[in-house]
Amino acid sequence: MFFLKVLFVVLSGLLVACGGGGGSTNLGAALNPVFATPTATSDGFTVQITNYDSSFAYAGTATASGVVAISGSGLVTISGVSALTNSTATVTTTKANFAAGSAQINATSSISFSNRTTANGLGSNLVYGVFVDGSNVYAATDGGLSISKNGGSSFTNFTTANGLGSNRVASVFMSGNVIYASTKATDPWTLGGLSISHNGGISFTNYTTVDGLGDSSVYNVIASGSSVHVATGGGLSISSNGGTSYTNFTTSSGLGSNVVNKVFISGNSLYAATLGGLSLSTDGGITFTNRSIANGMASSWLYDAFVVGTNVYTASNAGVSISTDGGITFTNRSTTNGLGDLSVRGIFASGSKVFAATIGGLSISTDGGANFINYTTANGLGQNYSHSILVSGGKVYVATNGGLSISN
Predict the structure, then answer these.
(1) Domain check: are 248 and 169 in the same one?
(2) What digits encode the pLDDT tens for the residues 257-273?
(3) Does residue 61 sit in the same domain as residue 101?
(4) Burial class (CB in 10 A: 0-12, 13-18, 19+), 127
(5) Containing structural domain, residue 41
(6) Which of 89, 108, 127 is the last residue of a domain?
(7) Which residues 6+ apart lie within 8 Å of 27 measured at CB?
(8) What is the pTM of this model?
(9) Residue 16 belongs to a domain
(10) Using an 8 Å Cβ cutoff, are 300 and 276 in contact?
């Protein structure tokens, strides 16, 4: 009996020593990372943990295929993210006898460019427009139409010797196997006009006022099937026979100005960006309703227009104007909202991303045009003066005064 009592006492002491009888272990407070302002990179972002403690172990994950690396000083690097894509990083902390900690930080990656010049075969470093069809890249330059068959690595240039109306090519468009080059008169001896090729640019047939164009200085063209719409210095010219002959529409049909810089088609609606406003037609161009400063636009002097559903975007000499109701009312964006310059020459939209080609750089919004970040030669642009933008196949193409810049 004495032996059993002693054994019971010993075992009871061990239970107490081992934390039995309802005792608990107190953990140290969790270390939740605190982040500084993130810095965007072309494939993610970096951010410093301001309360970094090397006695803790750190780990991280990120959305949008991001890969997280954390340095010994607490610098977090997220890589592997596509350009202009938002990623959320989750960083966790662990340490023996401490509760686990975590915090999240998100940022949008930036973008970088590689530039193509005459060294790559461009007719001129002054590039006005670009069109992309798969691996075929067409650059409208001040020295001819330059065509690449390898994604823009090298170009072959075509000129008046191939039938172009002028070597000053303002824009280029392709529909099916037909190439349309808008050319401008450069002197009294140069015709300008709309040049059309059916053999990949080897030879062109040129069309001018003789064929019904409003003016021989052609700024833009869009085609679908046998319908060809041409923006000229003397009106909007429309062909129903593949560009052989045209009917011209002017201010008498409701255009804001006879100088039409851009034509855009969305569904059954035809939009003309003119020097007197944005003109909209729903009857094939027979009549137009014009939108201008009176409708809230920053300026009636328009260089470009782009339409997605009921969202209408215009580029002018006073910034970007955006309508979400089909062009009835507009909200304006300026340098206050991050534009590189008030003079915006080109506009493009894709999802929540809005691209504005300004004379001070390429300004990009990832929130529908509310705010912009400006990209310049520091990001690889050939020159800050940008004329137009095209997004195709996950790449951003920018026509600049210093070459054709293609995102990496």
Answers:
(1) yes
(2) 999 999 999 999 999 99
(3) yes
(4) buried
(5) 30-108
(6) 108
(7) 97, 98, 99
(8) 0.90
(9) no
(10) yes
